[in-house]
Amino acid sequence: MDLFWTDAGGKRHRMRRASPYKSKNKTRRWAQQLLRERMGTAGGPVDEQEHEPTPYDTQHSYDHDKDTDEEGLTFSEFVPRFLALCESPAAGRRGANSEGELANKRGMIRDHLEPYFGQMLLSEITAREADAYVCAKSTTISKRTSKPLSSSSIANHLGLLRRMLKVACRWDMLTKVPEITIPKKGEVDNYLSRRESRRLLAKADPLFRDMIALGLRTGMRLGELQELRVGDINLGAARIRVTRQRTKEGTIKKPKGDKTRTVQVPHDAVTMLRKRVAGLERDELVFSKPAGYQAPHRTEAPAEGGEHWSHKEVFAAVQRATEAAKIGRKVGVHTLRHTFATHAVAAGVPLSVVSRQLGHADIRTTMRYAHHAPELNPGIFDRLADGSAIPAGCSEGGADDQSVDDSSTRHPVKNPEARER
């Protein structure tokens, strides 16, 4: 940066220096201090009492105090500013966070991050402190499951912490973001066996059985099932176009990741859907409350017919079916999605296909099911052979290696079977 000043004799000086800081406010203070030193050397010390403050000095003094306060912020003091950003359109490419995303962030901060990092200055949160957090949390018992926190939960905590520190650095509250190592998320083993799936469907409330079955057969999320309409289904092609979902708060939005997708439907689910949508209009919900329905132990008015099922009602239905089927462990609505992915991978469906079906933005998410993939069958790569004998001498190396028939490379054949015939 270029620095200019005028000495006592009226001579103008210029000096070019590189700032040792990344922060704009720190660079400004460093430059002012450097100018004071140079002005004192060239024209005597500056008398600050006789110096009339300029508009720049006034603004700089304000920035200095503000920057000093912000650099001394604790994690707890930074939390409201970060959450305010998450509620604003500047939160990210997709704009403000949804109510569900905000509730998730608030919960992680309130229950985990703030009790540990709350009184630390932002500058004190280092990679060492993050590693110590992982060690502490790995032995913490979850209030919800009564088990130690999973590596996936801890990874989510550190992902949010790193996001917060990146925002603080972008706002010049930190000079750099520490290198936080996020634990690898564990494999997904919370799924139902085929026998348990059949028992669950057999014991499910008839009002919810079809919705549970479609979740098991397609891996669709609960909000996507709630907002599924007749016009989204192509029975002839056995496809469903997922274009929207219903949030827990009751708002309608695009599917997770703001991406629509097409899911394939197995033939048994197609048969079920054909009966389900018979007589319904294209804009009607596939799964809705029948006229006169009234939830047990509730005083709300009977349904008029066609209303959405709430998240709580579907969760309660799955819990009742789980208890009736005597599965013996906790099963949630999202377990249906895990079950579909596990069975699909175990059946040999490629991970890339499963990833598109589930709507995963990153194939690494789908890789959590990879350990269920079957072992390679002996001779599976024999399909690469084109039926012709390998020319003699190829194993000797040298020029004979070039005699291998590579005509398929020079002249591609659109139909590989034509060459064999």
Automatic annotation (TrEMBL):
Signal peptide: none annotated. Residues 11-29 have a biased composition (Basic residues). Residues 73-169 form the Core-binding (CB) domain. GO terms for biological process: DNA integration; DNA recombination. Residues 1-69, 391-421 are annotated as: Disordered. InterPro entries: CB, DNA_brk_join_enz, Integrase-like_cat_sf, Integrase_catalytic, Integrase_recombinase_N, Tyrosine_recombinase_XerCD. GO terms for molecular function: DNA binding. It comes from the Bacteria. Keywords: DNA integration, DNA recombination, DNA-binding. Residues 187-382 form the Tyr recombinase domain. Belongs to the 'phage' integrase family. This is Phage integrase. It comes from Plesiocystis pacifica SIR-1.
